[in-house]
Amino acid sequence: MNRGRKPVPGKIHQLHGTYRDDRHGKELHAETILPDPPERLPEIGKIEWRRLAAELHKIGIMSALDVTALEMYCTVFARWVEAEKELQEDPGRGIISTPNGYAVQGPWLQISNNCIKQMQSLSAEFGLTPATRARIRFIEKQPKQLDLLDLLDELSKAKAKVANG
User: Fold this and answer.
1) Whole-angstrom Cα distance, residue 109 to residue 82?
2) Residues 122, 72: Cα–Cα separation, whole Å
3) What's the pLDDT at 12?
4) Quick one: pLDDT at residue 107?
5) Where is this region: Disordered (predicted)?
6) Does the N-terminal or the C-terminal CB of the chain have fewer CB atoms within 10 Å?
7) Which residues of the chain have pLDDT under 70?
8) Rounded to an integer, what distance in angstroms lies between the CA atom of residue 85 and that of residue 90?
């Protein structure tokens, strides 16, 4: 199903002078966390965790609910780096021949390609590409609603103040 044109990021609309709050969303100022990487991640995964978590924290979208998804991304990232390293050490591992002489993808190339697909999917969840960031819409925080009793209390204080001078 075609959803039409991909959205243009709000910053681009601002540069063009076409930005509208009602069309391009509001920025959410949510409390975020900056967690340490899980111990079970491989070292390259921990490096990627620190890089991404810091950036996600800066833009305000790293919360406690995101830890598992970020761990999955960093695990797949580490697996992809390992597969690419294996392919660079022996480029012949990318395409191999079957016993019948057909050329097929080798296991390390298959692992690398699968990791890329998984990283693309997971990166979209965090808005790690310009196109996916353009699709993110934040909910504007609502102002505090006054309770009827609070309103009556404020009204009685105002009347007392007027009566006392």
Assistant:
1) 11
2) 8
3) 56
4) 94
5) 1-21
6) N
7) 1-17, 24-31, 135-149, 165
8) 9
Strand partners, 96: 104
Residue 112: exposure state from Cβ atoms within 10 A (0-12, 13-18, ≥19): buried
CB 58 within 8 A of CB 32: no
Task: Write down the pTM of the prediction.
Answer: 0.64
User: Of 70, 102, 107, nearest to 92 (Cα)?
Assistant: 107
- Grouping H, G, I as helix, E, B as strand and the rest as coil, residue 82 is helix
CA dist 120 to 75, 84, 104, 107, Å? 13, 16, 24, 20
Query: Tokens 């965790």 correspond to what residue?
Result: 49
CA 10, 16, 21 angle in degrees (round to 5)? 40
Q: Which residues of 52-61 are buried (b: 16+ CB within 10 A; e: fewer)?
A: bbeebeeeeb
For 111, other C-beta atoms within 10 Å of its C-beta total: 18
Q: Smallest Cα–Cα separation from 15: which of 24, 28, 5, 4?
A: 24
| Long-range residue pairs from 62-69, CB within 8 A, at least 24 positions apart, any chain | 62/32, 62/33, 62/34, 62/35, 63/30, 63/31, 63/32, 63/33, 64/33, 64/35, 66/126, 67/35, 67/38, 69/122, 69/125, 69/126
What's the pLDDT at 8? Answer: 60
Q: Residue 141 has what pLDDT?
A: 47
